[in-house]
Amino acid sequence: MNASVILICSACAFLAIGVPVAFALGLATAVTLIFAESYPLLVLLKETFTGIDSFPLMAVPFFILAAELMSGGSLTEVLLRFAGQFVGHKRGGLGYTNVVSLTFFSGISGSALADAAGPGSMLIRMMDKAGYGRAYAAALTASTAIVGPIIPPSIIMIIYALQDESVSVSSLFVAGIVPGILIAVAMCIVNYRVSKARNYRGDGQLPSLREIAATTWKALPAILLPVVILGGMRAGWFTPTEASVVAVFYALLCGKYVYRTLQWKAVPDILARSALLSASVLIIIGLSASFAWVLTIEGIPQMLAEWLISMNLSPWMFLVFVNIFLLLFGIFIEPLPGVMVLAPILAPVAIKLGVDPVHFAMIVIFNLTLGMITPPVGGLLFVTCNVSKVPMTDLVRELVPFLWAHGVVLVLLTFVPAISTWLPRLWGFK
What's the pTM? Predict the structure, then answer.
């Protein structure tokens, strides 16, 4: 039997019985190597290691550690107070606080799951106590948390840049700023409409200017972390990988000496959590790389690329086709392995059709990230249900208006390339 047929059929079978995506891809690769008898089984180990043997990939564990250090340094509470002082008094104020806080936190964590499990769980409890529907609070949190992979620094962007040499990590980081803000604005609009319909009232009064200034001053070191990262890369002081190490030391200094809430005795637990999360990410990357290697050797990407080119699609029709395909693909596959498998296939075709590679990268990343909040596999839905104790059916019901809002943002992102490309060009990133 053809190796590619064995690979794809076995991967689908493992996913169908509930095997985690990373191990489903790894097991499918192992089954293919055993039964196809075309390549030695050692290929699985070699390509898995090769997939994570990359200098730029070192940024991933460091950015994860930086986020954990900032969280351990009471960053979440500082950002909540900072966001709440501007919007907490308005109708639906805690909903706006949710959106603004998670958007700020996205500039530190780079992970949707971290946003939902950390500050997201606190915000859900706060909204529940204030009279908001718990299922609505959970849906708002899950919908906003996907800003995590869009706002820099983003783990998915690092992985994408490794798969597509036509873009750099720096250009993708900058390209994600405007789309991330656009997503946050869309979530605020939905929150406004729902809060008005359900009469979700604001919490308290607008603080005095003196209180606003004091809270902002206290939150300033935390808010400046993304500025330090992007500004340092723009000035040429350090690469994205080196920026991740700078972020770790910056987070350590803020938690220990600025906010003075990070205790040395808590550092071993922070390192352990960071190591566990980093290991899970690297396992996904490594096993996805071995799966992608078999696909490449069997010529699947080349055949798909030739088929797409033979259809003579215009650039816009190609993007419509890609959006539909990625939305369906993302329902069943998590973003990281999705990027590992699909970016090498689709990006060269997009470039041949004249699509800007940074614009196309943002479309792919946003589509696959949306899969985290679309049932039945959406990983972000399960995390949010777990931290909020809300049944999946109730969460999905409340999620509908947010999905429509994300759809509008996706259309704008697809057909208005400047949303992704204007800022990188302005800052001089190629």
Answer: 0.83
